[in-house]
Amino acid sequence: MGQWYCPSGNRFYAGIGPYVGYGFSANVDTPAKTKLYKEDAWQEWDFGGKAMVGYELANGIQFNAAYQIGVINAVDKGEGKMLPQSVSLRIGYRF
User: How far is Cα 11 from Cα 1, in angstroms, rounded to an integer?
Assistant: First the structure.
């Protein structure tokens, strides 16, 4: 992760790196209430890469955006393939 300070005291930051994820629960909303992890339809573990950029004001308010993509096929059975992806926008406060 890198960070660069502005003369006003604000800060710009960016970073890239790996992530590890674990799914605790996943259900399909059908009359059968299929539990996807228990019936081996989905992988519980995920691993991949993430990139993030953000800006922090001198008063501690932060704005950032991130993108992550998994490299492990999330489909456990059959011939399908799905790589989990997410985009996030955040507002936060650092104290």
Answer: 13
pLDDT of residue 46: 86
**Structural tokens at position 83:** 């790589």
Q: What does the alpha-carbon distance between residue 90 and residue 48 come to, in Å, rounded to a whole number?
A: 20
Place of tokens 């507002």: 91
Report pLDDT digits (tens) over 62-84.
Answer: 999 999 999 888 777 767 788 88
Residue type, position 39, single letter: E
Q: What type of residue sits at position 85?
A: Q
Task: Take residue 91 and report the two structure tokens written for it.
Answer: 């507002």
Spatial distance between the Cα atoms of 86 and 1, rounded to a whole number of angstroms: 20
Look at residues 28, 25, 33, 1 and name the one whose alpha carbon lies nearest to residue 14.
1
